Each structure stands twice: as structure tokens, then as C-alpha cells.
Amino acid sequence: MGEEVDRVEFTRADRTAFRNQVHRNLDAFARMLREARFAPERPMTGIEIELNLVDEQYDPAFKNSEVLSAIEDDAFQTELGQFNIEINVPPGQIDGIGLDTMESAIRDSLNAAEEKAGRTGSSMVIVGILPTLMTDHIHREALSTNPRYALLNDQIFAARGEDVQIAIDGVERLAVTADSIVPEAACTSTQFHLQVTPEAFPRYWNAAQAISGVQLAVGANSPFLFGKELMRETRIALFEQAADTRTHELKTQGVRPRVWFGERWITSIFDLFEENSRYYPALLPVTSDEDPIAVLDRGDTPALSELRLHNGTIYRWNRPVYDVVRDKPHLRVENRVLPAGPTVVDTIANGAFYFGLVRALADDERPIWSQMSFSAAEENFHEAARHGIDAEVFWPGVGTARATELVLRRLLPLATQGLDAWGVDAAVRDRLLGIIEQRCLTNRNGAAWQADEFHRLYTKGSHGRRDALRGMLRRYSEHMHANTPVHEWPVD
């Protein structure tokens, strides 16, 4: 969830020093961009998948420390809540059979981890929001023991000066108050990383923003929160509200939120890092001893730790990433739009659709972002969060259309073209994009299946609401472990 920190109190001097250091980092970053010091573009991706832990009744299991001790694998790490862990998949190739190889590696890692987690009485579930998570599970003691999370909690609430109000309208209405950021832990996502050059970054970022709504429409998997059926991707509204540092008055004044879609197309990655420093006060003002300009002067690569730490507390749905591997800096687009799940194969299919589509749009001589407004892309994003696979979105040359029809008629051919440009094996390409195609033809993604199965048990059956959610999650888990694509899951 970002850089590790261990400071527990911050002074005014700390904040001033951090701001000055971020600005010096920005100067160094601008110089690195001018001097072309970055690694070349490679068809590489890394994937992060956040997981939920459940007990034998399929209620949340607050055991991430025990589970991680049992797993003993550095690829698995803590997340915000004690009922969360995360797997960081090592970077791999997109081209050839790379996506197939990555799918197999993820399945093998998760299966091995699941067996060990079982020794603690826990099981892992890949889902956007754990359907059995209730308000009585949300309390400060549910935060992971990593000191970063308690510190982040304290800093957010110090900035807010009041409790978090969560109000979400969907199929039903939810209105609750929280005195910690634990509700944010309910949001479990998949993050795709794509390494690009500085010159290509704005094209890939703009393309990722343009397709975020379509991604959500076909990949929604978070219809329940605290026992209520809300939006098809409730995780979007929940994350926006749970991590908000603004008071009501600051919202009214138009102060930008920390969970942010953005407000314009960009022409340089520098635009995004500069916005971070201009609009957002530090949450975790921890400074290093590094002088990045001096590091550049001697021919070495600066860590830019303050710039990276600050960037990690601003939650863009498509986030810029600066990183250093083996003393060589590189840039990535981190796509944070999608929920976790429902299966590993669905996750990799979502990735193939994303990688192919952004490549095709980034390569287009007439960019999609020159044909649609940024506000239209943002409206598509929130429309898809609300309605999922039934969403209607705007697309240039088409107008407003069902997302599924847009995908079938326009976007899947583009994704095919993009995967070909990456050099993806044709059989891998067709298998993975075929899963996206079938979701659109059957009108079934994770959110649709969850809702249908819940209503089979609750509305049409004899189960109480909480037991219906447990029963639905039990069947979900069975299908998830079978790695059957969600469009094939029965409701009976």
C-alpha cells in the first residue's frame, strides 16, 4: 500500500521540510526527463491483487498476521485491514505466452498460500468487497498492526477533524458513520502496472482514463456493502468517501479529493506529479537525507523518496509511478480501476483487455482523447460504477450506447489489434478476449452473478439476509477455486 514509515508524530518543521524536499525532488525529476535517463519501454507488467480472509462461516477472519506467518512468502504482504492481504506478482512479459505463464504462476501461488492459510482456520477470497463484511466488523482495532496504517488513519482524521460519513445510493441506500479509515479496507482491487517511456506515458495514461468506464462495466464485482445491495461497483464510491480528508466546507469550496479521477488530459507525466505537490498537503511528511540534485550530479539515480511517498497518499484511479530497479529508473502507469476477482482467469482476461486496448488507443494517429472531453470519460466511469454491465457510456463516433455493445462492436477488435502489437500469441489473445466477449454476450460479470445468486437465496428463497450473503459467498468461493470464468457460473 505504499512506502513504509515509522514516525508517529510530525511537527510543523517536518511539514515544511517535506514540502521543500518534494519540490527539490520535482526539480530533479524534471531534469531526468530532459536528460532521457529512463529505461526503455518493455512489454512488461506487474500485477497486485488484494485478497479477503474469511473463516469457516464465510465471515471476515481478522488473521492476516497469522496467515502471512503461515504462508512465509515475501510475495504476500499486509493490507489495511486485518482481514486483507495482498499478493504482488513479479513483473512478467505481456508478449508471447507471457499472460498464460502469469496466470499459471498466480494460481500456483494462491493455491499454495490457500493450503497454508487453512491451517489458521482461514480461507482467501478474491472479491471487490467482501459481501459478509458488516458494520460491526468496522472498528479501529481491525487495522493491520503495520504502524503505517495507524499513522495514516490518524493523519487523515486530523485533517478531517470529524468522523467519516458514508452515504451511497444504489439498489438500496446506505448511510453510516465511521471513526476510522477501516471502511477503506473493504475496497479490494486489482492493479495492473505497465512500464512505458516518458514520451509514451501521457498517451497511455490518457488512454487508460478514457477506457476506465468500460473496464468497470465489464469487470464490476462489488455490489454489496454492510449487507446492502448498492452500486454494481460500490468500491468506487466507498473508496472516494472513506479516504476523503476534506470537511464539508472544503468540499463546497471545490478542494480536490485525495481519491481522484483527475480533471484534464495530460501532455507529460510531470503534470501529475506537479499537481500532487500543488494541490495536496502531506499526510506522511517523512524526509530522507538524500539530495537528489547532488545524486544526479555524480551520475547516480535518486530515489526521490519524498515524491514517491507523497504520490502514494494520493489515490488516482490511474496513478503515475516512478521506481528504480538495479539503479535504473523507470516509469509505470498503475491502473487501479478494477476490483479483485472473481477468478484468476477473469483477472488475466481483464488485463488482456486493458493492455490491448490502451496499446491500440495510444498508437492511434487520432487519439481518442482528442475526440472526447475529459468530463465525458469521468461520467462514463461513475455511470459504470453504478450500473456495471448494464451501463450506457459515451464513445466518439458512436454516441451513448450500452457498454456491452460498444465492447463487442468497437473495442474488442481494438484490443485484438493492441495485443497483436504487443506480440501476444494468437491463441492466448483469443482465449482471454473470448472471456470478455462472453461476459458481454451473457450479460454476466461478478457483480451480476452475486446479485442474482443473493436474490435466489434471499428474495426467492427462505434464507435471512445475512445467511443468504454467506451462502452466496460460499458458492462464489467454490467457483473461484475452480477458476471457471464468471460468465459460466450458474444461478440455480
Automatic annotation (TrEMBL):
InterPro entries on file: GCL_type2/YbdK_subfam (IPR050141), GCS2 (IPR006336), Gln_synth/guanido_kin_cat_dom (IPR014746), UCP012666 (IPR016602)
Superkingdom to which the source organism belongs: Bacteria
Origin species: Kribbella turkmenica
Organism phylogeny: Bacteria, Bacillati, Actinomycetota, Actinomycetes, Propionibacteriales
Gene Ontology MF annotations: ligase activity, forming carbon-nitrogen bonds
UniProtKB keywords: Ligase
Key word Ligase present: yes
Catalytic reaction annotation: L-cysteine + L-glutamate + ATP = gamma-L-glutamyl-L-cysteine + ADP + phosphate + H(+)
Name assigned to this protein: Glutamate--cysteine ligase
